[in-house]
Each structure stands twice: as C-alpha cells, then as structure tokens.
Specification:
Layout (H helix, E strand, L loop, with lengths): L1 H19 L1 E3 L2 E4 L15 E5 L2 E5 L4 E10 L4 E9 L4 E4 L9 E7 L2 E6 L1
Antiparallel strand pairs: 1-3, 2-9, 3-4, 4-7, 5-6, 5-8, 8-9
Length: 117
C-alpha cells in the first residue's frame, strides 16, 4: 500500500510540474549570414520554461544546435551547443529575481528559431 501511495504521489508531482511550465512560442527565420547551399528543413523546436529550467524537444534529431538564452538587457544567461531530439533536452538558467523575461535563440543548419519567456 505504501508503494502504491508513493507511486501515485510521484506521478502527481511530475504531472503538476508539467502543468506549471509555460509554453514558449517559437518563431523561425532563415539565417542569411551563412552561405547559400543545400539546407535541411528543421521542424520548429518545442520549448517549455519553468523558473530556471528550460526544456527543449524537436520532432527530428538536430545536432550542433547553438542555444543561447539572454535576459532582455542582453546578458547571456546560457550558451551551449546541444543535440535536440524527441527526448527532452534540459537546460538550467540562473534565475535573477528582478528579471522576468528571457529571450531564447536556437541556431541550427542555417535556420534561427527564437522566442520569449
């Protein structure tokens, strides 16, 4: 009985955490700074943000995606090269109490995706 109660508790906590996360509306544009060649069409990544955790998923495998998260003053809070996939990619952002908005930019294969959270 204790095991069942514990499992139900864990499920409830994990479901409620996903409900509290905010979906980030992502927009996509071509990166014209890179050369013109063959390019692969990448599906728009799906991003959820919750306090200082950012979760990114993508319908297809994308390697070497440059992910940059800045505050609206332009201070870089996170920058890394990530592999995006249908499995979650978790990023952690240092939370600053006076900052309420962040800008995320994902650059992959001549495409730029961006959004605010």
């Amino acid at each position: 009985m204790r095991k069942i109660c514990f499992i139900l508790f864990v499920m409830l906590v994990s479901c409620s955490a996903n409900l509290l996360a905010d979906d980030v509306q992502m927009y996509g544009v071509d990166n014209e700074e890179k050369g013109k060649g063959t390019r692969t069409e990448i599906p728009t990544p799906y991003v959820q943000a919750d306090e200082n955790t950012v979760e990114i998923t993508c319908d297809s495998l994308v390697t070497n995606a440059e992910v940059t998260i800045t505050d609206l003053n332009g201070t870089v809070m996170h920058h890394s090269s990530e592999t995006l996939s249908p499995a979650n990619t978790l990023l952690f952002v240092t939370d600053t109490p006076d900052q309420l908005k962040y800008y995320i930019e994902i650059v992959a294969d001549e495409q730029v995706f961006y959004g605010y959270f």
